[in-house]
Amino acid sequence: MLSISITKGRIMEQCLPLLRYLGFTDAALKSRQLVLRNVSGDRQLFILRGRDALTCVRYGVADIAIVGKDMLLEYGSEGVYELLYTNLARCRLVLAGIRPPPKDSHLRVATKYTKMTNQYCIENGWQAEIIPIYGSAEISPLIGIADYIVDITASGKTLQANNLNILATIADISARVVINAAALHTKHQEIQQFKGHVISVIGSG
């Protein structure tokens, strides 16, 4: 059996044609179940948050994961192999705030992407206090938690609605197909077949 972990939300919604092609029924996909089996019983699906989907494939609980590139950049790719990148769930990781950072300033930046944010601030020569926040980061500059945020955006509309401007793009993000490094050898044929299905149904980047 081939086990697939997938990020719930936007990535899963855009992968629905693929999941149907793989034999998962609409009834199952619309249910609240987080572990699904396809009609023929040869594939199972774990529906998880992005970090957890990556963790499952890293530790071999799942053979394959479909996750955003942001998860790989933030949490690393140890134990996994990036098989394919797609154009699904395209967005950007951005620095946003009311106004550009002044030179030689000490910044307070709210984000759940603490590793990438720290790297970006170092690269730009900024001293920064990174404030972990896991809800709506957009509120942080408005209530004084932080001066800036680093977050994912697709259209920028939520930032605009909260009077924030995109000041820089840190990384372009899309959905990636990653596999457990060991499964590349133990389930090579099944994984190559899965890769073919992804390319034929949703394409690759």
Question: How does this structure look, described?
Answer:
This protein has 205 residues and is of the alpha/beta class. It has two domains: 2-89 and 174-201, 3-Layer(aba) Sandwich (D-Maltodextrin-Binding Protein, domain 2); 91-172, D-Maltodextrin-Binding Protein, domain 2 (3-Layer(aba) Sandwich), CATH 3.40.190.10. It has ten helices and eleven strands. It has helices at 10-14, 16-21, 26-30, 50-58, 69-75, 114-123, 140-143, 157-161, 183-186, 188-201; strands at 2-7, 35-37, 43-48, 64-68, 80-85, 91-97, 106-111, 127-132, 148-153, 165-173, 175-180. A six-stranded mixed beta sheet has the order 2-3-1-4-11-5. It has a five-stranded mixed beta sheet with strand order 8-7-9-6-10. The longest helix is centred in the C-terminal third of the chain and has 14 residues, at 188-201.
